[in-house]
């Protein structure tokens, strides 16, 4: 699964050139292959043992819904987290045009032992 791999370009290649990834929990939007690859790198650098595990998925035409678990340990956090998540994707010619991730940020931070106002480090 490209998301769990260390190669950011493998994940980015699943998107159209104008593809958009949104993480609503952390209010981040990434556009195009370069930014999506950067998001993958930042996530893997900031979360030790980061993994997703797909638990359910279905497709209707050019729309895909995926249920999954998101897990790992945030850099500097005293504990790991595992939270349920849902992604809604829109496809064009078999590639992702938009990907919107939904999960509970408060639950992730609480499980991690981080304060509710915590934000990811910038470097």
Features:
alpha+beta; Nuclear Transport Factor 2, Chain: A; globular; SnoaL-like domain-containing protein
What does this entry look like structurally?
The longest helix has 15 residues. β3 and β4 form a beta hairpin. It contains 3 helices and 6 strands; from the N terminus they run αββαββββα. The two termini are 26 Å apart. The protein has a single domain, classed as Nuclear Transport Factor 2, Chain: A. The protein is of the alpha+beta class.
Could you outline the blueprint of secondary structure elements for this entry?
Elements: H1 8-12, E1 15-23, E2 28-31, H2 32-46, E3 47-60, E4 63-74, E5 81-92, E6 95-103, H3 105-112
Parallel strand pairs: 1-6
Antiparallel strand pairs: 1-2, 3-4, 4-5, 5-6
CATH architecture: Roll
Biggest β-sheet description:
6 strands, mixed
Order of the strands making up the biggest sheet = 2-1-6-5-4-3
Number of strands: 6
Oligomer: single chain
The poorly predicted ranges are none
Binned, the helix content reads: 10-25%
Helix/strand/pairing class, anyone?
A: alpha+beta
Question: Any idea how many domains?
Answer: 1
- Note the run of SSEs as H and E: HEEHEEEEH
Q: Mean of the pLDDT scores?
A: 93
Rg over CA atoms = 14 Å
CATH class equals: Alpha Beta
Count helical runs: 3
Summarize the structure.
A six-stranded mixed beta sheet has the order 2-1-6-5-4-3. By secondary structure, the chain is α+β, with helices and mostly antiparallel strands.
